[in-house]
Amino acid sequence: MTTRSSNRRKHGGTAVKIVVTGPFSAGKTTLIRTISEITVLSTEKDITDHTRSRKAETTVAMDFGRITIDRDLVLYLFGTPGQDRFDFMWEILGEGMLGYILLVDADRQDSLEEAVGILAAFRKMARVPFVVALNRSSGIEPSDEEKVRSVLELDEDVPVVPCDATDRESVKSVLLALLYSVVDSIDAPAGAVV
C-alpha cells in the first residue's frame, strides 16, 4: 500500500485515490463527469449485446477525473466498469485506494443484486472505508435503507446516502460522506473494526 508521504504531490498537497464502483448502468461515469474539474478520461465503447436497451455505451477499462478539495488535498476519481466481464479491472483500479463509493441504481432491483458480488470483491481486495450511494434517489426511506443494508450485509457504520449523479451538490455530499468515513477510520483505536 502506498504511504501518505509518497502520495505527496509536487506542490505539497496530498493526492488521494477514490474508486467509484457499482453495477452496469448505475451512473458511475456520470457521477465522475459531474464533479470532475478536468475533462474525464473515459474508455467507453458501443454496446453490442442485449444491454444496449439501457444505454448506448459502456466503460471497458476505467473513467478518470479529478477534484481539488483545497491546496492540500486532491481527489483522483477512478470509475470501474460495471459489467462482470471487465471485473479484472476492479483489482487493478482498487490498488492503493483510500476508499470507495459503491453506486447503486435505486430504480432497479437488479442493480442492488449485482452490487452484492461487486462489494464482495472490493471487501476481499482491501479493508478501506466505503459508502453506498443510491443513485436516482431523492431521499432514502427507512425501509429502503434497511433493505439495502440487509441485501449488502452492511454494518451500521457504513453510510447509505441518496445520490443524483447529475447534480454536483449531491455528488459532493457523497464524497463528503466517504471522506468523513476515512477520517473516522484514521481516528479509530488500533484494532477497531471500521
How would you characterize the overall build of this protein?
- The protein has 194 residues and is α/β, with parallel strands linked by helices.
- It has five helices and seven strands.
- A seven-stranded mixed beta sheet has the order 2-3-4-1-5-6-7, sandwiched between helices.
- Strand 6, helix 4 and strand 7 form a beta-alpha-beta unit.
- The model is unreliable at 1-6 (pLDDT under 50).
- Helix content is 32%, strand content 27%.
- It has a single domain (5-186), classed as Rossmann fold.
Give the structure's gist in a few sentences.
The chain is an alpha/beta fold and 194 residues long. The protein has helices spanning 28-35, 88-94, 109-125, 142-152, 168-187; strands at residues 14-21, 41-46, 57-70, 73-79, 99-105, 130-135, 160-163. Strands 2-3-4-1-5-6-7 form a 7-stranded mixed sheet, with helices on both faces.
